Amino acid sequence: MMEEIDTVGIFELAEVSDDLKRIAGKVIRGERVTVEEGIVLFTEGDLGCLGKLADMVRLRKNGDRAYFIRNFHIEPTNICVNKCKFCSYSHHFSKTKWELSVEEIIDKVKEPENAVPELHITGAVHPDRDLYYYGDLLVKIKAVRHDLHIKAYSAVEIDYMIKKAGLSNVEGLKYLKSCGLDSIPGGGAEIFDETIRKEICGMKSTSAAWLDVHETAHQLGIPSNATMLYGHKENYSQRIDHLERLRQVQDRTGGFNAFIPLKFRNTNNEMSALPEVSVTEDMKMYAVARIYLDNFPHLKAYWPAVGRQLARVSLTFGVDDLDGTINDTTRIYSLAGAEDQNPVMTASQMRDLIREAKRVPAERDSLYNVIG
Ligand code: SF4
């Protein structure tokens, strides 16, 4: 049974300003929050009020379900043409350097513990690997696991390989789809504001290029996710600008499945001097994202980035998806100092974590169909 939506309680919170009460009224009535109102949510939003509003939106969209998926990652390489200052993963900053061969990748796909519904492939932007290499990789993976949903290549990787091939996004994405690309992960969005983007990751694809890869993919029937790297140099206005650009694409295409806020971690990168934001700020980020992105079906807490306990707490701040079992196959956040150095959770552990938050666990496929 769905829990009751507590709308009265929001207005009883003494610390809520009149402006915030007016915005809360809009959210309760299911009306869209403007850019200016989104900034007010961040600047004046009491965490209790934001949490209640976000939880209400979550309940309307997804009921009491909290989703997870059995999945594994493959990170083909960390050799990168770019030098993002927040990155702890690429060969520029990490103490390791790797480039898996196609044969090594296929061996990973064949491992019995990886007999799960979804494979997530992302890595660095390798200077010598191109569109046809990555297309061929998809073909070879599908040849051994035709039922595997392949969510592959961030828009930054795709932008690089398509430009290198001299093709348009339509041509390049059609080719990747024909090779077996099922969906696109949300990475590489970082922060869209051009000033901050230039400062922290000026070499990588522009915001416009990232957005165009996703919008084109949606038009071709390839769904995707979206992310935002928060908690570094950006201000609240720049966060809302990022959410607004995503909301506009989603209005046109409806192709995004989930939004995933990604917390800046400060271990072993060029921005290590910056402190990490507090847990309160993390929850605020989740809550405002849930309220603002009224056309996104799902809000995901990527537990290898925030840790499993914070991921559990996030389920009461608008989150309805905890991503996957991962099977200790990603290093992106462990190299940046995340609590889980070897991220792996069994499906049973994911169910327990979700039940601790008084939600109903729902194992999903990559398109959010419940499968267990
Ligand atoms: S964040 Fe990605 S694109 Fe940037 S340096 Fe790291 S691996 Fe390369």
Explained architecture:
The chain has helices at residues 8-12, 18-28, 35-44, 47-62, 102-110, 131-144, 155-165, 169-179, 194-201, 207-219, 236-253, 279-292, 303-306, 308-314, 347-356, and strands at residues 65-69, 71-74, 118-121, 149-152, 224-230, 256-263, 298-299, 321-324, 360-363. With 372 residues, the chain is α/β, with parallel strands linked by helices. It folds into 2 domains: 8-59, no CATH class; 67-363, TIM Barrel, CATH 3.20.20. The model is unreliable at 1-5 (pLDDT under 50). The chain binds iron/sulfur cluster.
What would a concise description of this structure say?
The chain has 372 residues and is an alpha/beta fold. The chain has 15 helices and nine strands.
CATH architecture assignment name of the largest domain: Alpha-Beta Barrel
Bound molecules: iron/sulfur cluster
- Give the spatial strand order of the biggest sheet: 8-1-9
CATH names the topology of the largest domain as TIM Barrel
Helix content: 40-55%
Domains (count): 2
Low-confidence stretches: 1-5
Shape: globular
Supply the CATH class of the largest domain.
Answer: Alpha Beta
SS field, number of helical segments = 15
